[in-house]
Amino acid sequence: MAFYQLINTQKLPVSPNEIWNFISSPENLKEITPQKMGFIITSKTPIERMYPGMIISYKITPLLGIKLNWMTEITQVKELEYFVDEQRVGPYAMWHHQHKIEPIKGGVLMTDIVTYMPPFGFLGAIANSLFIKGQLEAIFDFRKIALEKRFGVYKE
Q1: Which of 20, 21, 57 is nearest to 39 (CA)?
Q2: Domains and CATH numbers, the chain
């Protein structure tokens, strides 16, 4: 079984507090997820700020209009620095996503590290090379644009 890792970085002209307040609220995920993904939070409990042990459930439509349930657990949080979400139910055999922020001159550096394993063994490895990796990269490309629209473009 193959594991893959996708690493994305983005600089934004905001304070750590400002970006933390945005990314630590699950409700904001919809704003930075492509509409074609059909992303809907289905959790029944109010979702304001993430905390370790928080379970968040969603419906997504990643491929061919097929709706899937996805449940993640926020396993680690260090305020203003990082949080980690891990899939508990969903389309991957394994999903671990680190969201890190660090202050830099004039803003913050955001780093996303996604470690994942597609389902179905060697068929999943083929699917990863054919479309999964590209789809994940497209989601993060969308996210970069959405965050720049909301917070502005970082100038070095």
Answers
A1: 57
A2: 4-151 (3.30.530.20)
pLDDT 10s digit of each residue in the chain, 156 long? 689 999 999 999 999 999 999 999 988 988 999 998 889 999 887 677 899 999 999 999 877 678 889 999 999 999 999 999 999 999 999 999 999 999 999 999 999 999 999 998 888 889 889 989 999 999 999 999 999 999 999 998
Q: Whole-prediction pTM value? A: 0.92
Helix axis angle, 16-23 to 133-151, nearest 10°? 130
Token pair for residue 121?
Answer: 């063994």
User: And the tokens for 35?
Assistant: 């509409």
Extended strands (E) in 48-119: 55-63, 66-78, 82-89, 94-104, 107-117
In 3D space, the residue among 26, 96, 90 whose CA is nearest the CA of residue 56 turns out to be: 26
